């Protein structure tokens, strides 16, 4: 049978419809499409796709089960190595991971591994009746700091091995960036809640409103009887550009903008937490967070949304599908543009004018690409005299974060690098015995799946450390 | 869920509550704050800790009813619960090496100033307190301040109680009379703190101000609470939630902080009216 050269398309809400609602954009494969897509897999012996997966999902094996129509068996295979299948199927940059190494991709489009993973996870969530069972306890207690992707993964892996795991979350809801950062239209919060419930079924205890480093310190966790600690405290303080006007009203960090909309539900009608809606919005940056912020602004009613990014489309780091979706929805990409100043409204005749101090525009300079820099990407260079202004009413700055200082400042002997990231070895072990770390707290802003990979590595190392005790 | 153990009206617009939160009670120090949500889907608001009872496991908060969230909170009674209560956050007030201190509190800011004054008193420092209110009806915590101050001056803007005028008047008199404070700590409306700094400046006395900007998470994640400091000729961005809430008063850009504080003014006024109407019609 000839192989279909193209991946089966993911059905989506029409761009002109979804631009005005917060429902999920991608609708998922139906059973028939999933079977057809699974049949494209060659089931290669050398499994190149698996080597591209940070959590080593047994990809050809689960796809083989999909082909047979045994979706629950497929789920169980994924579940062996991934604690968050419904999440990964939605937010992983598959084109740079598993699908990049797919044998088919040499001649055709890769197998839609991510789409199949999502199908299998959703099928399980809709049909499974049996709850996960907590395994017999091995008597060891482990504390996890933060309930984002790295913490939940580490918790899941350890709980499956019989550890008594407690997850401490600073915010009022578990999920970390999956709830405060990634918007509903890309990752419905009910899916995150379901994954957290599954972990609770495995015996994981989740304590919200506990800020490790403040409410309790790492040393106190050891005093309380925890034998190992995993720090997955995530992204910290947002970076700003240090250009004039960043303190004007209407300038948000992406963290603040997305947290207001997602975690605090400002996207709903009549919210308790305010957010600026409508107007014209410039989002500065080119990563997934920038795409999320831009598309959120659009859905909040903005008449015009710009992405302002200083390099070209080729360097733009966001997941390809998100960029395509954003373009379809009408986001205006101003590439090779760099902001030099945020402009504010100021009525010289009336110091009490309520509009004073609000954003009125953003001044950008055009860029061209020069020689490659340390990151290997061509360095953008400003074109002299090319400054011009875009009229906007809000600016969202999505240029990354620096690790949170709370744990470092209250944990003696925990070494960090010059950026504030916690230093770990290849097992995720920090400079403190029994303290492991992973995710953005170590690397600075990165992806959900790389954080999950780090949580997994640390769980294995913690298991080896404690079983040798 | 966190239980409201006791509730007391300090004046018609200011309420004191003691909340059961043992972990916070054990850790919180003067100058630190907590974040609370009254109910599911509620807003997160920061409130400075006004005292703790580590043995009972309770944390005292004092709040002014200024918006929808504080209005809703004020309708909760002792024995009822609030949804979330997290902390302590921020850095404790710096007390080391300060032997003679002047605490200047304004309005509900006095609720935050009080535990700071008490802490200095406990540490054996000489405490002068100046507390100011718009009028007699709004006076709070006079007895508490008297108990922990070597000298107390009460001011009202309208002269309806104690001395007439604002807090900078007696402060200036004391400084002119040659009082040598190691530190002035001021907590209250931004405009008041700005003028306290201006009053102290000619005398070269260090001033610590307690900032209370708009905040979401309070843990160093959203950056909404950022402030601009003028430090060594440079503009420096700091975050009230992790770097503060106390800052060197001479460095703060008060005009910017005041402007940012009004970002959601219209929204908040409208939301407060709606909540008030809800309770009126209930």
Question: Given this structure, which CATH class of the largest domain in chain A is correct?
Answer: Alpha Beta
Number of domains of chain B: 2
CATH topology-level name of the largest domain in chain B: Rossmann fold
**Assigned CATH architecture of the largest domain in chain A:** 3-Layer(bba) Sandwich
The average pLDDT score of chain B comes to: 93
CATH superfamily of the largest domain in chain B: Nucleotide-binding domain of ferredoxin-NADP reductase (FNR) module
Q: Report the count of strand segments of chain A.
A: 16
Estimate the strand proportion of chain B. 25-35%
Question: Helix fraction of chain A?
Answer: 25-40%
What would you report as the Rg of chain B, rounded to the nearest angstrom?
Answer: 18 Å
Query: Can you give the mean pLDDT of chain A?
Result: 93
Fold and architecture overview:
The complex is a heterodimer of chains A (469) and B (282). Chain A is an alpha/beta fold. Chain A has three domains: 15-127, Fumarate Reductase Iron-sulfur Protein, Chain B, domain 2 (Orthogonal Bundle), CATH 1.10.1060; 141-236 and 403-467, FAD/NAD(P)-binding domain (3-Layer(bba) Sandwich), CATH 3.50.50; 240-401, FAD/NAD(P)-binding domain. Helices cover 32% and strands 16% of the residues of chain A. Chain A has a five-stranded parallel beta sheet. In chain A, strands 6-14-7-8-9 form a five-stranded parallel beta sheet. In chain A, β1 (141-145), α8 (149-160) and β2 form a beta-alpha-beta unit. In chain A, α2 packs across α7. Chain A starts with 14 loop residues before the first helix and ends with a helix. In chain A, 54% of the residues are buried. Chain B has helices at residues 22-27, 68-74, 109-122, 142-148, 168-176, 190-200, 240-243, 254-261, 265-281, and strands at residues 2-11, 14-20, 33-37, 45-53, 58-64, 81-82, 84-89, 100-106, 126-133, 151-156, 163-164, 183-187, 207-210, 226-231, 234-239, 246-248. By secondary structure, chain B is of the alpha/beta class. Chain B is globular, with a radius of gyration of 18 Å. Chain B folds into two domains: 2-89, Translation factors (Elongation Factor Tu (Ef-tu), domain 3), CATH 2.40.30.10; 100-261, Nucleotide-binding domain of ferredoxin-NADP reductase (FNR) module (Rossmann fold, 3-Layer(aba) Sandwich). Chain B is built from nine helices and 16 strands. The chains are: A alpha/beta (469), B alpha/beta (282). At the A-B interface, β5 and α12 of A face α1, β7, α8 and α9 of B.
